[in-house]
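Hi W.,

Here's what went into the run:
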Amino acid sequence: MLPELGQFALILALLLAFVQCAFPLYGAWRNNVTLIALARPVVAGQCVFVVLAFGILTYAFLAQDFSVAYVAQNSNSTLPWYYRFPAVWGAHEGSLLLWVLILNIWTVAVAALSRRLPDVLIARVLGVLGFVSFGFLLFTILTSNPFLRHLPALADGNDLNPILQDPGLIMHPPMLYTGYVGFSVAFAFAIAALLGGELDVSWVRWARPWTNVAWAFLTFGITLGSWWAYYVLGWGGWWFWDPVENASFMPWLVGTALIHSQAVTEKRGSFRAWTLLLSIFAFSLSLLGTFLVRSGVLTSVHAFASDPRRGLFILVFLGTVVGGSLLIYALRAPKIAGGKAFAILSRETLLLTNNLMFTCAAAMVLLGTLYPLIGDALGVGRISVGPPYFGFMFALLMIPVVLLMPFGPLFRWASADWRGTVRVLRPALILAVVTAVAAKLMISDLPLRGLVGVAATLWIGIGIALYALKRWRDAPAGRRYTPEMLGMIAAHFGVALFFAGVLITEATSIERDLRFAPQETQRIGGLDFTFHGVASVQGPNYRADEGTLEVRRDDLLVATLHPQKRQYTGQQMQSKSDIDPGLFRDLYVALGEPVGSDGAWSVRVYVKPFVRWIWLGGILMMLGGFTAACDRRFRAQFSVENAQAPSARPLQLPV
Amino acid sequence: MSRLLPLLVFAALCGLLGFGIRWNTHHETNEVPSPLVGKTAPEFTLPLLYEPAKSLSRRDLLGRPYLLNVFGSWCPTCQDEHPFLMREGKSLGIRLIGLDWKDQPDAAKRWLQQFGNPYETIIADEDGRAGIDFGVYGAPETFLVDAQGVIRYKRIGLLTPDVVATELKPQIVAVSKVATP
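Here's what came out:
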């Protein structure tokens, strides 16, 4: 009975989504106060039903209702209860429902926290969000119903993919989705502004905190995903340029451009077209990512089960949303370039470069991701481009970003003081070069990447520190750092850590596939690894062979590692590596196969210096995003001249 | 014009994605060419599911063609395939051997009791070794082996009426002719 109620709730949510889209948009067009006022209550209503549907599906997992086909496919009676939550979004149907749920939470947040904005604008924003929600609910109900029954009920389920049975996965998808679904808010603001023919750019100020929060969540989601891939997949890699990873990375790149572009538009009035387009692109790429992952057009290690009907539906939806918005843009984008003039040497120019580089990077990733498809279309066969292409192109596009980044905050708007800036940054430049040269002299076989990593990190890190110092000296106490500025400092410092992590790890990692006989000791990277054989252990829903390795440095025990090879109930093997984490190096051990009959095993050993810095950088960037969004300036009352028609502030209905 | 540019680029992108969907529906992604087709089936000796004391090997099956269907009680796609085998299995005109792959015998027996047993004989490959030798990607998979023990055809995934009519039936007719000249 319950699953049917869940489906019913979804249908009601669909109807409410239609109301939320059509009525407020029509009301805003016709200036009908009642229809405009309808927006907020309908948003709340839709959210209630979506939460209900999601709750029912979650309950079906907790209660092990194997008469629901989706539960039977993705759960099993031996699955521990704490993995039944991630199992809800472990496959296509449930993750789609999570998508809709998160969209609804964002919408409710916008409705609740936008009391100070003109009601006409909010009606349009909520209307656009309603359209997106309508599309996704329709998609869920027509092609991917999670409540489909499997009668007669199965005795037991098929089990959740073991690769997904991990604490990292409880958090990764919700964070990731919160990020890229969150770009729908910036998108909705942009479309609402275009529809309403907003002449001033105050909407950008209101959209900024939402964009920053969405970006911060996406940053966190990607960071978590990378960390999860690192310790779960057992290859010691942290990024694979896999189509699904790219699907989340493209919105991130455009989102990064967008948060910078919004800052310019809000403060200087320039880059209006950029901000509008980037708002549309960021969300479009989120939708495109959804398409790529679920249509089966591209194959990937973590693509969902595909179905051409689904692909077609999303393509039509994508065409409607993105094509429609770009058409609106073409028709209604401001005809005159607004904003204040700026010289070539100015912060605007640097941010324009940033926009260009990040947009190009996103286009480059898109091209690489779609390459197999282009190959088919041109009849030259399905060719994939891999990490060499992405890595090389990305590095190339990031060179100007790294070089120019420390200048960004130091350059003034409109016209910058070149000599003054160089004077401030000189210590960073000198230190970066000196340290790189010293590193090369000390470690003669340090590859170029390592050198670049050291130099780039110091250049950006010290550069941003010098900026913070300058503010401290120049500005009066109490007005030194706004939250927006602090966020920027944290995020840019995060970028420095990230580059250190990536380039130093790539340059100096040691990777060995070794055969270990019992009690054998081998020396890797100055550490002695001793293998103490393999024993059998029993987990809640798996059996595992567990190896024991002791790591010593000069007879001093550094770590004891227990890599496993797990055999889940009725499923394939899953290797579970063990890691001794450290701020300056990780020891990473994965168990291979038994070799011969004397109890020897093949073991993969990695020593990875600075690898944690990659994720530390990501976390700092995320914190930066959240901090910047807290700036009180964004929540200021809209000024009287910004309020449009008097009818724009009608009766207030409680939500 | 420059305002229309994003729209035009997007239209091209949509065209490409539409092509992708079309390509996917017209190309059988299940057709992973198997290096085993045309080769002798790998050696195996596996216990019978219902009489674990007895076993069946590749040699025992020589002399008459057979269809080896890889399944498991844990596999939902096998469940989808099952009604078809129950309905049409007899009319294929060939021995249907089940390979219960990476499965617990008791679970398999329960499953077969619930949904019916279309197989002439079932062998149990509990640890999945034979599956590895046969290059099994995932269940269900179906191999057509001729009287000389040579694999003639392989299907990855669901046997649908369509696939059986256009691909499998002609192959069965061919191997049956060779078997009884």
